[in-house]
Design the sequence.
């Protein structure tokens, strides 16, 4: 099918669902999908095997093959994710900021779905279920496009979803899938601004840059997470050590892990020897500036300008000694990626200054950057993270998949 | 100056102002601008005369010359607008949705400026002051580009603004102006996505379409206002008549005026003869469908398919008889422009159905579409209206010129 036609059908399905998609129906569909995944477990695992075999033929790395694999445990994980999304409150229809105007009519806002959302993602097939479930629960229609290496797995999951939609008398194009591995199909999707309202790309920086360049539709995304921890001269240094280690080591391959450590010069001699040694013991490679070397120089490399921009996603850390909080903030606003940055300090004035002046989507005081996550923030599941400035910043949950309309209740009110 | 350099300087000014731009300073600047406009009234009027003379030479229409003119009264209007914006609450820094997570750390959101906003507009020079004041009060930096016919007036006003910025030790590029009438400069601005975060075009559909096509930066806009009033079979017909006349006649040239009237067939024989006759008496030309002619046919024209899409901005009205509320909603969602639509009914179930299913940025019950306005809704001044789906819909005031960041206060919290 032509992509334009697929987009048109999905838009039509969205409009139909606007009328019938109440919370009860949405939750029933999600639970039915969970049930059918359980029933069709074997079929899904078989289809997944085709992808794994192709992946082996194509010499995919072990890590990628592992991400691709669907086994009993991962299928149960999908079922659990569906049940969790059912349990989340439905954001659609919420009326808020409603007040009576001096003339006596009421004005307020009501949350409504955004519309048709295109989601472009890479290897993991579980994203198919999670993305479909989150967009459905928020009343949107979706056009999914997963990685070509997961083609059979994704098609199996989408067939389950569409069967459930049909059984519930819902237009199956409410959750559409681009059924070709041709890359041109994505380019074609990105210009359907008449029918598609938002694009969310999830994957590596290359994928996302290519989507942004070609899209005529608004895109919500983050390129990378260059997260900082700044250890202030008034920090509790035990707390700082604990947070720094957690932010770097607990799960280094994710976007909210710390990539650069900034340390105030007043506490550098006390903090750096202990902290850097401990990090090395935990396997972290250090790339440090000249000043840092004065306090700790064992087995460290020299940091280059590129290191301050780097998202290592690995056990590597850039380290810099700064004169004061102003230098730390300037460094973060210049080299950071507006993802998540944290100050460790006991001084409330500095905490407020950092919160105000650091121009990132999540700014923290005395906490690990690893806390920057939809689940940890209490959004439930997250569809992605935005480092853009409009519509949504930081973790995006169900509410961020909605927009609002103004609603007015008059009693014959006119403009005088 | 190169547009890229102007954008870079404005972005720099934005970052500086993030640190110093508290409410007190912002209000002082706005009041200083008001004072200086008062002082420099004669200079401004003289510069405006150059535009008027050029306009006459270029055979501008009387209406355009009138919109261009700055006289004592209009200058006082600008001063009053500034004072009103000073009186509005500052949205920046507002902390909301803050809660304590089970682990004991606090998560919330804080409203922050969007960044650098490009505003592209046409004739009226007072937009220069209002747009600058609204973006400044919300902590943003602005790059203004007015119509070439108002060049001298706008330059005079911008010189006043920049003088005040300098007197307050604020980087004058916080409010920049593209000082050339070359159209290529606008195209150049629209690709500065590294420095500019949002574009707001204000003007005719042609201007806006051209901006959207060329922009690599997100654009908030409305193309047109094809607003509907649907008179339900359970409407209070006196109320309906009053609203219909107000929506069409009170100020027909604006985007929230009604362009199409939909009438339920059950009340058509009672409502149409009275309402259409009255509208004709008030000078309204009628373009009606076949069914309407059964009830009233005096001096009416036949509506064509284009009439249902038309924004007349004039004393012209398209009229259609519909079978029921479903046909009315389908018509609005198909032909409307997602601006403002209103149902007149006493039936609460139909009111809720209309509110839920009409997919417009403002949806009303028993009220005139003319109420769709930032001032009337209580936003204070409005920077524009959005019929887009992301970030802001409907009238946009100060709060819509801000975005948010997540803020987290921990006590040494880490990810377990």
Sequence:
């Amino acid at each position: 099918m032509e992509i334009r036609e697929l987009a048109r059908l999905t838009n039509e399905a969205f409009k139909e669902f606007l009328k019938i998609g109440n919370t009860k129906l949405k939750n029933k569909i999600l639970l039915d999908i969970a049930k059918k995944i359980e029933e069709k477990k074997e079929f899904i695992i078989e289809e997944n095997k085709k992808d794994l075999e192709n992946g082996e033929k194509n010499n995919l790395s072990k890590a990628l093959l592992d991400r691709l694999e669907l086994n009993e445990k991962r299928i149960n994980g999908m079922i659990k994710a569906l049940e969790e999304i059912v349990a989340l409150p439905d954001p659609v229809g919420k009326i808020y900021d409603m007040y009576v105007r001096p003339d006596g009519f009421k004005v307020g806002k009501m949350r409504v779905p955004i519309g048709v959302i295109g989601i472009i993602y890479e290897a993991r097939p579980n994203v198919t279920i999670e993305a479909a479930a989150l967009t459905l629960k928020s009343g949107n229609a979706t056009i999914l496009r997963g990685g070509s290496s997961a083609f059979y797995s994704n098609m199996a999951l989408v067939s389950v979803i569409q069967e459930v939609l049909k059984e519930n008398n819902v237009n199956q194009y409410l959750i559409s899938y681009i059924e070709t591995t041709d890359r041109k199909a994505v380019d074609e999707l990105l210009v359907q601004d008449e029918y598609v309202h938002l694009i969310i790309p999830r994957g590596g920086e290359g994928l996302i840059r290519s989507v942004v360049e070609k899209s005529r539709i608004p895109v919500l995304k983050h390129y990378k997470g260059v997260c900082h921890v700044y250890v202030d001269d008034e920090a509790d240094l035990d707390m700082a050590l604990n947070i720094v280690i957690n932010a770097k080591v607990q799960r280094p391959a994710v976007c909210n892990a710390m990539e650069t450590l900034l340390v105030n010069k007043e506490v550098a001699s006390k903090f750096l020897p202990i902290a850097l040694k401990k990090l090395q013991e935990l396997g972290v490679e250090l790339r440090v500036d000249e000043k840092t070397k004065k306090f700790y120089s064992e087995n460290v490399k020299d940091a280059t300008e590129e290191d301050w921009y780097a998202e290592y996603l690995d056990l590597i850390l850039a380290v810099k000694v700064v004169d004061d909080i102003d230098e730390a903030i300037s460094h973060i606003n210049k080299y950071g990626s507006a993802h998540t940055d944290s100050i460790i300090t006991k001084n409330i004035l500095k905490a407020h200054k950092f919160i105000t002046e650091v121009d990132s989507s999540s700014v923290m005081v005395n906490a690990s950057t690893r806390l920057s996550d939809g689940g940890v923030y209490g959004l439930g599941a997250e569809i992605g993270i935005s480092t853009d400035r409009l519509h949504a910043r930081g973790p995006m949950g169900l509410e961020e998949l909605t927009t609002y309309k103004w609603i007015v209740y008059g009693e014959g009110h006119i403009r005088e």
User: Anything to note?
Assistant: The first strand of chain B starts at residue 95 and ends at 100. Chain B touches chain A through 65 residues (CB under 8 Å). Chain B has a mean pLDDT of 96. Residues 3-221+392-408 of chain B form a domain with the Aldehyde Dehydrogenase; Chain A, domain 1 fold (CATH 3.40.605.10).
